[in-house]
Amino acid sequence: MKMPVVETQPLLTVNNVQKLYAINRGCQDVNFSLYPGEVLGIVGESGSGKSTLLNCLSGQAAPNSGDIIYHTRAGEDLNIYDINEAKRRLLMRSEFGIVKQHPRDGLRMRVSAGANIGERLMAVGDRHYGHIRDVASNWLEQVEIDAERVDHLPSEFSGGMQQRLQIARVLATHPRLVLMDEPTGGLDVSVQAKILDLIRTLVADLNLSVIMVTHDLAVARLLCHRLIVMQKSRVVESGLTDQILDDPQHAYTQLLVSSVLTP
Amino acid sequence: MNSMDSMNSMDNTESANVSHAQQSNYNFAYLDEQSKRTIRRGLLKAVAIPGHQVPFAGREMPMPYGWGTGGVQLTASILGEKDVLKVIDQGSDDTTNAVSIRRFFERTAAVKTTTATEEATVIQTRHRIPEQSLSNDQILIFQVPIPDPLRFIEPSETETQKMHALEEYGVMHVKLYEDIAHYGHIATTYAYPALVNERYVMDPSPIPKFDNPKLHMNEALLLFGAGREKRLYAVPPYTKVKSLDFDDHPFEIQQWEENCALCGSDNSFLDEVIVDDEGTRMYVCSDSHYCSQRVAEQEQEQVSSSHSQNKSEDLA
Ligand SMILES: Nc1ncnc2c1ncn2[C@@H]1O[C@H](COP(=O)(O)OP(=O)(O)O)[C@@H](O)[C@H]1O
Ligand SMILES: [Mg+2]
Ligand SMILES: [Zn+2]
Predict the structure, then answer these.
(1) How near does any CA of chain A get to the CA of B55, in Å?
(2) Which of A170, B143, B160, B206 might form a disulfide with B150, Cβ 3.0–4.6 angstroms?
(3) Hey, whose CA ends up nearest to atom 8 of ligand 1?
């Protein structure tokens, strides 16, 4: 896999982040930096704290302690929980993109595909119907949905198409940082491959920075430049994807890797 | 004292109302003074933050919610003994709803009532803004069923409050987008959302969008009351109100090919009425006072012109 050109300034810096629901349930002692153009995978078994961490990163759940510092388009370094809610929500709308595991959680099921994509544009001030519709149609094509279906409701789409629509909706405003929680988790294995391919192409074409939660190491290997491995709320290992999957150092990672390799 | 003064000096209304209260079983205008004062406090807040929905502790009124209890409570709270009240429903002074509310205040407040728009100091309305311009000593009170324009897309009250607070109004355009995608134009014709004072998006209640331009820079104080949802809001005189739209699909009002069959008006809001068993249609002004006034004026002109004609014939 081609590594991105590493810029010196991280897009996101995570310092000692902790959010615990009970002892060792949630996430703690989390430290890492994400550089522009990087795809970082968060792997680990179910219950290890991946979603808790991602929710902290996406502005949806304030950590109990620690800092999450985001380097904005304007060149500011913002601690995303130090700014007020209005500014945080604006930042989430304009620079972050969040892809939910279940498309129905990330889509408005009662409005058309075009309106779903257009909403984010309108939310940041686009007031030209023709332009919004053109952008929506283009995005549908980019995620391999026939642009003719721009007026169809998401409920008329298959699960895989709904997920692709959600991705189009999120990407339409050109977020710099995309956060995904098990984006293929709810789908049949047969349709997963197409989505993964699509994500891989878009990430490369748009030079997106991505943090992706997955419990599927095959997905991690396909998409992620780097991985952090979580167990019982802590990061037990982190490094380049190939290194971690081919030569795991931590006993837990070894177990994780072997259980995948020997079905 | 009229209602404009009572908004300004809340305490005097109370003493003015005591004499009436002593003579009847009700307090003046039915509501107790404590409730009125709470509502007036809410109204002052609403006036201070145009378009912002203010919660109020609504009272039970002796009529069902669908009858406009929100508007009735606001009217009761601001009415003074010298006010002149007009009540309209769908533009008409004569529907059951309008007549009952007018009677209600005649009985409980013994105020003078009128059907003449220009005579009224307080107008309670459902569905319309009068055709003739209002002045800055008048108050128009709207009966509102659903006060929150964001409700259609976001059922959670906490979330809609947050959206208003943070000016997250992108979803309002989603609705208009859907209209154009499905019908080729913005098909929303009633309760058409508008941005008040460049800040809050407001549901102007189920008035036709034809009336939206009248909200803009209106001289009168516009008050909105939702009884079931216990919310009130206001557009103070001379406030900017902009109907939402797209650059390439600008806001437009309804238009008719026909003129009013009774008064000939070519610029008022028309209702289609079926006049016989064969289904013959006729278009007439929905604002009944406006229409009858025009008809009266035209008759007057005819009379005076036939008079002068007679005179000139006499002279000849
Ligand atoms: N909202 C919550 N309230 C209480 N406990 C929670 C909550 N969310 C997650 N947890 C607990 O925190 C732990 C980590 O959960 P989660 O982050 O969802 O793990 P993962 O995404 O890795 O499966 C689990 O034990 C889970 O039960
Ligand atoms: Mg999870
Ligand atoms: Zn007429």
Answers:
(1) 22
(2) B160
(3) A52
